[in-house]
Amino acid sequence: MGHSVKGTGVACAVVFGLSGCMSDVGESDFVTRMRAPDATLSEAETTPKTTAYASTSTAYDDELNAQSDIIQGLVARNSIVPPDSAFERVTTSVMAANNRAAESKLKAARLRAEAASKNWLPTIGPQISLSSLSSVVANIVVDQVIFDNGRRKGERAFAKADVEVAAVTLAEDTNDRAATALTLYLAAAEGREKASLSETTLEDMTHFEYIMSERVRGGVSDRSDLNIIRQKLAEIRADLEANRETARTNLSELNAMAIDPLTDVRGITKLPVSATDAQPLEVVRAEAEKTRAIAAAAVDRASQLPGVSLTGTLGSNGGIGANAGGTQLGLGTRARLESIKVATETAGRNVFEANENSQRALRSLESRISAKTRQSHEAAGLTQQAKQNLDLFQEQYKAGQRQVMDVVGVYETFARAQTTEVTTKYEAARLRVEMARILGVLADGGQI
Fold it and tell me: Which of the 8 DSSP states describes residue 23?
C-alpha cells in the first residue's frame, strides 16, 4: 500500500510539473496557463466593478474587465438625457423596475469565462473497471493536455468574447427599455396636448354654434350653416376623446413599466444627440461576435487535428503514459479547414455590414430630424399668421364686414395649424429618441 501511495505522489508531481512548464512552449499551438498580461494586472486591481458584476463578484472579474476594450467602452458611455428633466424622471423610474434578464445571461457568461480560464489545468476523474468476476479495480486518472493545436486557448478566447456579447446585449436591452418608455411618454404627452387644444377648440366652436343658432332663430342665417357647425362640433368631440384615450392608454402602459406612477410628469426635453456621439451598439455587437466567431473557428480547427496528452493513473496499477490522437485525418480535412477559414472572413464582413446599416439609419434619422425641426418652425410661423388672420376676421365680423361662417373657416385653419405644430414637435422628439437608442446613450454604462 505504501508503494502505491508513493507511486501516486510521483505521478501527480510529474503531471502537474508538466502543466507548469508548458509556458516555455510556443503559445500558438500548445496549452498555456490563463495568465493575465503583466501590463493589465495592476489596472485590474483598480478597475471598478460594474453593477452586473458586483452582485456575484469573483476574482476573475477585474482581470476580464481590464482585458476587454468592449466592456470598458460600454462602461464609459454617458447618458445624454439631461438631469432633472422629465425624460430623466421617466428613465430612472423605468430602469428601477427593470428585471434585467440580460444581466443574468451576462453573469452566466462571466462564470463560464472564469471556468474556461482554468482549462489549462489537468483534469482528474475516476476510472472503474471489472478485472474479473469477483474483483473491481478503481483508479484515479489525471490527464494533462500537452499539445492541442490551440484548442484550449480558443476556448478561453471564446468564453471571454461570449461575455462581451452578453455585455452588449445588456446595454442594448437597457437602451431599448429606456427608448420604449420615452416613446410611450411622448405619445401620452402629445395626446394630452392635443386634447387640451381640442378642448379650447370645442369651447370656441360652441360659442360659434350659439351665435349661429340665435341668427337662425331670428331668420338672419340659414339653418344649413348651423348644421355645418354642429357637424364640426361632433368631429371636434371625437378628436377630443381620441386624444384623451391615446394619453390614457400610453400612460397606463408606461406606469406598468415604472416603479412609481408617472402620471404627473409634464414637459418634453430636447435630447442633444448627434450621430457621432458614440459607436452604434449594433456595430459593437458585431465586433464582439466577430471575436467570438474567430475563437470558435480556432476551436473547430484544433478539433480537426491530432493532439498529445499525458495521462497518469493513480491506484494499484498506477503509471504514466502519453497519448496521441484526436480526429482522424482524411481527404476532406483540407476542405473542412478552408470552410473554418471562410467562417472567420464572414465574421469580419458582418462588422462592415453592421457599420453600413447603422450609418444608413443614422444619416436617415439626421435628415428626418432636420426636416421635422424645420417643419416645426414653419408650423409655428403658420400658426402665428393664422392667429393674426383670425383676429382680423373677428374685428371685421364685429364691424359687420364678415359673416360667422367666414370667421369659422379662419378659426379652423388656426386650429389645424396648432395641431400640425404639436405633431411635428413630437415627431422630432421621437426621432431623437430613436437615434439615441441606436447609439446606446440613453443610460450611463456604469449604472447599467
Answer: G
d(CA 31, CA 47): 28
- The verdict on residue 445 lying in a domain is no
DSSP helix/strand/coil, 241: helix
Contact 424, 376 (CB under 8 A): yes
**Distance, CA of 434 to CA of 440 (rounded, Å):** 10
The more confidently predicted of residues 22 and 346 is 346
Rg (CA), the chain: 35
- H helix and E strand count, the chain: 12, 4
Q: Cell for 190?
A: 402629445
CA 391 distance to own-chain centroid: 51
- What's the pLDDT score for residue 154? 80
Q: Structural domain tally of the chain?
A: 1
Where in the sequence is the domain holding 38, given as residue range(s)? 2-439
Per the domain annotation, does 383 fall within a domain? yes
> What is the tens place of the pLDDT at every residue in 78-90?
999 999 999 999 9
- 384-413 pLDDT, tens digit per residue, is 999 999 999 989 888 888 888 999 999 999
C-alpha cell at 11: 505521478
Q: Do the strands 319-325 and 307-314 form a parallel or antiparallel pair, or are they unpaired?
A: antiparallel
What CATH number did the domain enclosing 14 receive? 1.20.1600.10
Asked if the model's pLDDT at residue 341 lies above 50, the reply is: yes
